[in-house]
From TrEMBL:
InterPro entries: Ferritin-like, Ferritin-like_SF, Mn_catalase
Sequence segments annotated as region (Disordered): 140-193
Compositionally biased residues, Polar residues: 169-178
Similarity annotation: Belongs to the manganese catalase family.
Protein name per its UniProtKB record: Mn-containing catalase
Compositional bias (Gly residues): 184-193
Amino acid sequence: MTGGGNDSHITSLLYGGGPALTNSGGIPWSAAYVDTIGEPTADLRSNIAAEARAKIIYERLINITDDPGIKDALKFLMTREIAHQKSFEKALHAIQPNFPQGKLPGDPQFANVYYNLSQGEGDLRGPWNQGPEWDFVENPEPAVDGGDGMPSVELSSAQEKVVQKMAMRTQSDPSADPTTGADLGSGGATKKG
């Protein structure tokens, strides 16, 4: 038995009859297992993102199997990720205010500035870079990389097809202006009419 069993002398003597604080490989627990930066709201957002990533992985696994039993198990696990995400979101919104994280305010000189560093075909404006709260800088000088701000990536035709498919799949609606989690957590901020 890896790590000793409840009926073994190892459990009785070394662990005082309680559970052995080890992982499934018998490695003792350490503080290295704690994944936190010490700011609960940032940790909760990290957990929410981790649950979202895990849900996507389960979706991908479901798509590559045709075994009904495996699909059922994966759907259950995927659904539990949704439940975990909801729990973390409820906990996050129970802490008010929860944005921005930490205690120090941002520098107002830069907090509402959008630098247009992605120019050319497909350059879009939307609620993420326009409106009364944004100071839009069309042509920041000089460009961060010393160039002209235009893309210069060369792709093979196969890579270009993949990028085009991804662009279609991930295309956003520039007219959408939803209330964000940051809005909800800022202590009552609402959308401007």
